[in-house]
From TrEMBL:
Source taxonomy: Eukaryota, Fungi, Dikarya, Basidiomycota, Agaricomycotina
Single GO MF annotation: proton transmembrane transporter activity
UniProt family annotation: Belongs to the ATPase g subunit family.
Protein name in the entry: Mitochondrial ATP synthase g subunit-domain-containing protein
Keywords recorded for this protein, A-Z: ATP synthesis, CF(0), Hydrogen ion transport, Ion transport, Membrane, Mitochondrion, Transport
Length: 138
């Protein structure tokens, strides 16, 4: 028996279906817009065109199954989000929390998380600037 899908799951499935339809339309548009070159590129896939489309649809279905099985969904209420942030804020302000972190050795794990967050931020900055150092001024 299949579980009843929540509205968030239905929205995600609809969005995924819309994205795949947009991808197919983009492929068709590219083929028409690029003219002979688009037809040539499409022809390069040749007999692999159908397996590629099939593999993309299988990947979409697998992602849907993972989304459903892991119960990945946006928070159902604003209270859940605010509760999480209020917990973080209260821990940050509590001296006893920091004493316990130092005593238990959790500070090393928090340090690793901080370095990871900083690294992800910096990589995002580099990608956003499209330059390793500074901005390209042209």
């Amino acid at each position: 028996m299949l579980p009843i899908a929540s509205p968030a799951q239905k929205k995600a499935q609809d969005a995924l279906g819309a994205a795949s339809a947009a991808f197919i339309r983009a492929g068709e548009y590219a083929r028409h817009a690029l003219g002979p070159f688009g037809a040539r590129f499409s022809g390069l896939l040749g007999s692999y065109q159908q397996p590629v489309k099939y593999n993309l649809s299988v990947a979409r279905e697998v992602l849907k199954q993972i989304y459903t099985a892991e119960r990945l969904q946006p928070p159902s209420s604003l209270g859940a989000v605010l509760g999480s942030y209020s917990t973080l804020w209260s821990r940050t302000r509590s001296i006893s929390y920091w004493r316990e972190i130092i005593k238990s050795g959790e500070w090393a794990r928090l340090g690793v998380y901080a370095v990871e967050a900083y690294g992800v931020f910096k990589v995002g900055e580099i990608v956003g600037r499209r330059s390793l150092v500074g901005y390209n001024v042209e």
